[in-house]
Amino acid sequence: MPVPNPAAMEFFLTRRSRPAKILRAPVPTREELEPILTAAARVPDHGKLEPWRFIVLEKAALTRLAMLAETRGAAMGLDPDRVIKGVMQLADADLAIAVVHVPRTTEKVPEIEQILSAGAVCLTLVNAALASGWGASWLTGWHMHDGEFCREGLGLAEGEWVAGLIHIGTETNTPPDRPRPDIAAITTWVNE
Ligand SMILES: Cc1cc2nc3c(=O)[nH]c(=O)nc-3n(C[C@H](O)[C@H](O)[C@H](O)COP(=O)(O)O)c2cc1C
């Protein structure tokens, strides 16, 4: 007989991100983050390759990265509004964790499966933070897709890239949930 876990199921049926712009201090301490990171690293991982790693960005690092985004966005010739959006995402944050995809060279596990595993880390990190009572959000942005920014600002090695920048903090208000998928419309039942 299956042994249900109603509390876990209730969490999954009601969980939702909190927009990064409404997250503020206090943020989890390093000690409080440890179980959250441990939960996030407990994901399906074909071949046990661990094709991901974490970079925990505390306030001073986010301020430094916001300044780098300003110069980098201008150097890239991006639309100023887009630059500012990326800059403020970092400048307003008190804590964010970059989940870095670290591709492993192996013939047994295609890279796409390693990338999917990195996505699982991102979602589990959001969920573990939410389950611990924090607000959390999975963002990226033009800076996280820019190799030069990631090399200079985050010290990423060749081939590494940011799968998600997970913002974590205290929510300052509770915005309404968004409409959720119609399960009947996206599900096909096959019995023959
Ligand atoms: C890979 C990925 C990247 C994302 N990047 C952004 C982003 O840069 N900016 C943004 O506003 N939302 C971004 N989102 C969407 C947010 O995470 C969004 O708030 C999320 O869909 C909320 O879903 P939930 O409430 O079910 O957790 C991204 C989502 C994913 C999966």
Question: Can you give me a brief rundown of this structure?
Answer:
Its EC number is 1.-.-.-. The protein has seven helices and five strands. The protein is an alpha+beta fold.
Describe the structure.
The chain is α+β, with helices and mostly antiparallel strands. The protein contains seven helices and five strands; from the N terminus they run αβαβααβαβαβα. It has helices spanning 6-14, 30-40, 59-75, 80-91, 111-131, 147-154, 183-186; strands at 23-24, 52-58, 95-101, 135-139, 161-171. Strands 1, 2, 3, 4 and 5 form a five-stranded antiparallel β-sheet that branches. The chain is globular and about 60 Å long. The structure holds flavin mononucleotide. Flavin mononucleotide (FMN) binds next to β4.
Overall morphology:
globular
Estimate the helix proportion, in percent. 40-55%
Structural class: alpha+beta
Please provide the ordered H/E string of secondary-structure elements. Answer: HEHEHHEHEHEH
Name the descriptors:
single chain, 192 residues, globular, binds flavin mononucleotide
